[in-house]
UniProtKB/TrEMBL annotation:
UniProt-listed InterPro entries: CAP/MinC_C, MinC, MinC_C_sf, Septum_form_inhib_MinC_C
Keywords per UniProt: Cell cycle, Cell division, Membrane, Septation, Transmembrane, Transmembrane helix
Domain Septum formation inhibitor MinC C-terminal: 94-191
Pfam family, one: MinC_C
Domain of life where this protein originates: Eukaryota
Species per Swiss-Prot/TrEMBL record: Pycnococcus provasolii
GO biological process: cell division; cell morphogenesis; regulation of cell cycle
Transmembrane residue ranges: 236-258, 270-287, 299-319, 326-344
Presence of keyword Transmembrane: yes
Protein name in UniProt: Septum formation inhibitor MinC C-terminal domain-containing protein
Taxonomic path: Eukaryota, Viridiplantae, Chlorophyta, Pseudoscourfieldiophyceae, Pseudoscourfieldiales
Amino acid sequence: MLKCAGHEVSPETCLYAKNQVVANEMVGVLKGVGKAPQYREEWRSVANRTDDAAPAAVEPWRRVQRADGGMARSAWKLELSEGVWISQVLNTLIVKRTLRGGQLLKHPDGDVVILGDVNRESAVVAGGDVVVWGALRGEVHAGCNGDDSSEIMALEMEPTAIRIASKYAAGPEDGADAPAYPEVARVDADGAITLDPATRLGAASPSVRAATLARRRASGSAVNWSPAAKASLFTGAYITAVGFLLLVAPVTIFSLLFDPRTIAPGWIQVFGTLCVAFGTYYLGAAWGDANGGGARGFYAATVVGRSAIFLTFCMLVAARAVQQSLLVLGIVNLLGALAMFTALRNASTSNLYL
């Protein structure tokens, strides 16, 4: 027998891994496997419920009007060991097995991906998104730390109940027909849990994303700096700083590492301009990630960076620091910035955000 969550269980019923990091993130099997009343009591405590019964007024979710939804656009190929592993970079817990009744899986510090089913009377609690590559019939609490931009996706969405942050929704009635395609549960602009066809995780409309971010700002949780976002922010900051120094004092800064006689000061300033632009891209990507905007932050940063390249190149040519042919590259960057700006503006009226 093994010890799991303080209880003796058989090896095949305990979620475990040799990696101690994973083991510390997980709770395996609840006491009283298969006993619904005892399980429900545990679930209430996990979901930060303070009452002894279901909420007085539970709003069932509603399925929005669907287009011709299909399967997800791409499949995932994952190399797993011991059935469970964790991505240290993305802080995502990945489980390659089915959760049976009475099992509880907790990962409050990131997303959870389950390559299997979540059966009835089992539960998943995650600090971020929950993706079930199978049938979801148990209970799920995404965004358990209060992030109501978290989402729940399943190939078969038939849960007993779901929570996203503090929002609660009862599952469909027994016997209800489930759609023949994946769905995503998310909090809409009105603060209610809705279901959409799962074209891709995170593909909420701009109005939904804007309302979600507004609620997060109001609650003081608008910015969530992941390790990757912090690294991108640091990289962008020092590249941008170096670029500005090369623009202001090209010979002095360049001579710290290289012989300034090998290159004209004007071309050192061109290099500094490119450093500022690249640093802006990193800063934009970090800010977009931390604010829940995804790649849109990077796209917007390219508009700023490439516009700055055009303006700086024009100034250098006007000062006769470089040849006039540099204007060709400046104009190319300006056209690229205008094209991206137009694409971002048009995306604000579409159903998918960038």
